[in-house]
Amino acid sequence: MTERVPFQTVASVAKVLLAFSIFVMSGSAAVACNIPVFRYALERWQPDNCELILFHREPLTTTQQTMLDQLMEQQISRNEDTSSSLTLSDLASPTPAHAHLWNSIRTNFNQKITEPYLVVRMKLGKGRVVNGWHGPLSDAIEVGILDSPIRRELSKRLLSGHSVVWVVVRADTKTDSLPATQNFNAKADAALKTSFSWLTNNLELPEGIGLPGSELHSEIPLLLKFSTLEISREDVKESFLINLFSELQPAATARGENLIVPVFGRGRALEVIPASVLTSSLIRDLTVFLSGACSCQVKDQNPGFDLLMSVDWNTKLFGKGNAPPPVRSDRDRLNQKPELLTIPTGN
Q: Which residues pair with residue 90 across a beta bridge?
């Protein structure tokens, strides 16, 4: 049900990272940053906002209002610095923007639309806003728009010190996959297993952590720890994530491939990777990037998109009422002389 948009193809991920020109602040240690990307993202990158729009014609019933209240509670429990909103749009007098959105949904959706009807608008990379999900309000809680068991486990791991959690969406077991596809899935599983072992034994944290400009602000242990988290396509409680990832890789999904999503920071997905593309070298390249010094501190200049999660990250990280550490602004960066580097390929 997501809106299909041109999305960075995974086959080019390695090239994107290898050619990714990043700014390294030159000068004194006061402006240096040696914090790993995954930790900088956890402590300082606020999750992107999302917008919930509820289209309706009649006043909400008591049952419908209860459902809406549940969504509101999930919204409130998100990071208070995250600018998310819920808007009621009366179809008797919608705004021009809402009228256009409603007409596009009705045009592209063949089944009968049951009102009230909810649309989730989310940011997908720089400058892209898409319909992350849309459907009857009665389905909104069940599909897990802002909360689900996998995302609760994901946040638990990230807040306990996992550097990167690789979410694996298993292919539909009810669909007969070609032998080649089954082979891709098996090779991807093996690549993750062997790569974790290699990375644990060979990867090192950047030097200089704790020096001025590279301070850590939460008590979460700084580790190089990697894990996988599996989602079954038959799991109705994970419908939102399954649908989102599948729509970003429709061809691979149709072939019956597993989808692998490296997640770091506050639930930021680096990319949706089909099993046929995932290799040990790609896993290492992506992990080296995420574990390296945070040379590019501006969130929008890094690849990836934020998952919708019902987590108050600031409270979990720093305690209730404590402000998060500041993020270096674009102005600060522009006052520094940049040096262009290329991320190494690894082995």
A: 56
